[in-house]
């Protein structure tokens, strides 16, 4: 059973093999469920020319936002980018290539990539700039556009608990994009708050089976609040 143990001891080992120009998928939504320590390791390693796929690009100074500080991201595929001033500046200055993708389409692109489906038709975006240059086709009287699936060299995932075999459980809304990201990486790395013994996780509650996970590490997390609202 030792060969099934996905645990690694350091973040350096967790991202061994990551090099310039690779495509990195990252879970998270806003600041929820963000693999923040894995992103910090990318920042430390100074790799550049990355294509990053995620719902958003973090905020200034946290999450994927730290990679913008060293201009490590060449191309960003995301559905929302509105909370990051540095991102906006690099985009307007022509330093960063951005592909905005409808949120559901982005999730399905990664799910399809993980399932071995090369492309799919969706009605979302037809007749808009999203559809420019893409094949379209009518089904049952409605127009659809063809969207290609997404896979990555590395997939970075934040979980709540996992056993050493890589079976992962997410906590509430921190699940967000993490399960589809986990499916779509050639090397999927998961960081969790707690690693438990096999058998401690209820099988019916496992969100990402260990078959998708290549490396697993236990980390400590900042758990920021994105927008704090207090009664006046």
UniProtKB/TrEMBL annotation:
InterPro entries assigned: 3-oxoacid_CoA-transf_A, CoA_trans_fam_I, NagB/RpiA_transferase-like
Keyword Transferase: yes
Protein keywords: Transferase
Presence of the UniProt keyword Transferase in the record: yes
Record-level Gene Ontology MF annotations: transferase activity
Top-level taxon in the UniProt lineage: Bacteria
Protein name stated in the entry: CoA transferase subunit A
